[in-house]
Specification:
Layout: H1 2-23, H2 33-44, H3 60-66, H4 74-98, H5 101-114, H6 128-131, H7 133-144, H8 148-159, H9 165-173, H10 180-200, H11 204-220, H12 225-238, H13 240-251, H14 257-271, H15 286-301, H16 307-342, H17 352-367, E1 373-377, H18 381-387, E2 390-391, H19 399-402, H20 418-428, E3 435-438, H21 456-459, E4 462-468, E5 471-476, H22 481-487
Parallel strand pairs: 1-2, 1-3
Antiparallel strand pairs: 3-5, 4-5
Helix pairs in contact: 1-4, 2-3, 2-18, 4-5, 4-7, 5-15, 7-8, 7-9, 8-9, 8-10, 9-14, 12-13, 13-15, 17-18
């Protein structure tokens, strides 16, 4: 009875920590989560992914947001906390069965800690790399249990979230050649169902172009390799508690070391596609590191190594490695919570563009009527999330029209698909959104919308109706923009 009560206290405190951290961000939309939320809003408007809207991620990411009506605010943050709890439960189950419940609690606690104390876009957002955590853990756990078909199905679900699911399948394959046939069959079940759904909706060709063709062009256009490796080094520094636990695990020469090294190696390759090593990409490393770190810390702090070693090395090392990310990321939660309780607006450079987008959205909302549509020049899906307007055609941001990915278009004009972008612009000018929100031209003059000759005539139908920071809001004026703008 005492054990059950302690367990309830542990899980209650863990969930409260996850929820509290996320509620501190209740008034913020982070990059990438807003993209999938905005896509879900378009589904609610009756649009089909890929066929009716440009969407360069597998479909499950947008469908997840339908579970809470694609609402931002407390509903999104509660969903994120529940998902984080699910991941912790899965890690607990895996480590408990590998070793004991002691390692299980370590795994759950370490995962919760990592889902709080790091950059918000890689911890509390429901985006592909975070959503991949649960099926990733489930797949490898089932493969370890020898349940090849079920492991393959879970890996197939991973593939419907991220193309990195293929690395999850490869990790499952490490548990024996005899599992490969059933693994493959299981993997093809969810992937086949996804393809059948897309084919029946007439969206398979568009899916291939947007997710695979654009994705491969993006992956091939690596940014600075040095910057990527620096991000990787920083990640290991902030997750030194996992590294220390993993080192202790390896030093003990555990029997599972061989397959863990393979699992970690595959995850590292997946995280390093394109040599970017972005914070959210590195979520791929969490499952293998957390599982073995739970064993490493349990061994170091279980007292069997002697009280002296535990006190002189284990406890100080644990406190130090956990303090590094807590000191770096913890104070921001206090500041955000204080702002919310006192009703003050947040003052944080990291969310300046989100606040700017919210202000532009308010301009649109004051003018919008039922049936109005929107397009954003730049990458500001949060404007769609805030206004909840439908888009007029397939395109809702400038990436496919300029060929310049969002991760660089504020500072670069180097396109990865110039000819393809020109074809997209020819299609785009046949649409007529009610509102054009330009969140790019004032940031990067080389991608100024006014510098595209094929968009010049199309732009004459629009009149500026407001500005906020680096964003300009235009409204369609029925071809009489020049006269109506002059009289405003």
């Amino acid at each position: 009875m005492l054990i059950r009560r302690h367990s309830l206290i542990f899980w209650g405190l863990l969930f409260m920590a996850l929820l509290a951290a996320r509620l501190c961000h209740v008034e913020i939309l982070w990059a990438d989560e807003d993209y999938h939320q905005a896509a879900a809003i378009q589904i609610l408007h009756g649009k089909m992914l890929y066929r009716d809207i440009w969407y360069d991620k597998p479909p499950v990411n947008a469908l997840v947001y339908l579970l809470f009506g694609a609402q931002y605010g407390w509903a999104m943050r509660l969903a994120s906390a529940l998902y984080g709890l699910l991941v912790c439960v899965l890690a607990f189950r895996f480590s408990s069965e590998l070793w004991t419940r002691r390692e299980g609690y370590w795994a759950a606690a370490l995962f919760a800690f990592c889902l709080v104390f790091y950059f918000p876009g890689a911890t509390l957002t429901l985006e592909p790399d975070t959503l991949l955590l649960a099926p990733h853990l489930t797949s490898v756990y089932l493969a370890w249990r020898g349940r090849a078909l079920a492991a393959g199905i879970a890996a197939g679900v991973s593939m419907c979230i991220s193309v990195k699911g293929v690395f999850v399948l490869a990790a499952c394959a490490l548990f024996g050649v005899q599992m490969w046939p059933l693994l493959s069959v299981g993997f093809l079940i969810p992937v086949g169902l996804q393809f059948a759904w897309l084919g029946a909706a007439g969206a398979f060709g568009d899916y291939f172009e947007q997710v695979w063709k654009w994705g491969m062009l993006y992956a091939a256009s690596a940014l600075s390799v040095g910057a990527g490796l620096l991000r990787l080094a920083n990640w290991f520094g902030f997750h030194s508690a996992l590294v220390a636990g993993a080192v202790c695990f390896i030093m003990k020469r555990e029997p599972t070391s061989r397959w863990w090294i393979g699992w970690f190696g595959l995850s590292l390759v997946a995280a390093g596609v394109g040599w970017r090593f972005l914070p959210r990409y590195l979520d791929q490393l969490l499952p293998p590191l957390v599982i073995v770190a739970s064993r490493g810390w349990a061994l170091l702090l279980d007292g069997q190594n002697g009280v002296s070693l535990k006190r002189k090395v284990g406890i100080p090392l644990c406190v130090l490695t956990l303090a590094i990310p807590a000191i770096r990321f913890g104070p921001r939660y206090v500041t955000l919570a204080s702002d919310l309780l006192s009703g003050r607006p947040h003052r944080w450079a990291d969310i300046a563009m989100d606040q700017e987008s919210r202000a532009a959205s308010q301009i649109v909302q004051r003018l919008a009527r039922n049936g109005d549509t929107i397009f954003i020049w730049g990458y500001r899906p949060n404007v769609v999330a805030y206004t909840r307007l439908a888009i007029a055609g397939r395109f809702w941001d400038s990436q496919p029209l300029t060929g310049v990915p969002a991760d660089r278009h504020l500072s670069s004009a180097a396109a990865i698909a110039s000819e393809w972008a020109a074809v997209h612009r020819a299609e785009f000018i046949r649409s007529q959104p009610t509102f054009l929100v330009d969140g790019l031209s004032l940031y990067n003059s080389r991608l100024d919308i006014n510098k595209y000759p094929d968009l010049a005539e199309w732009l004459t139908r629009y009149c500026e109706v407001g500005r906020t920071g680096g964003m300009i809001v235009y409204q369609y004026m029925d071809g009489r923009a020049s006269q109506q703008c002059a009289t405003r």
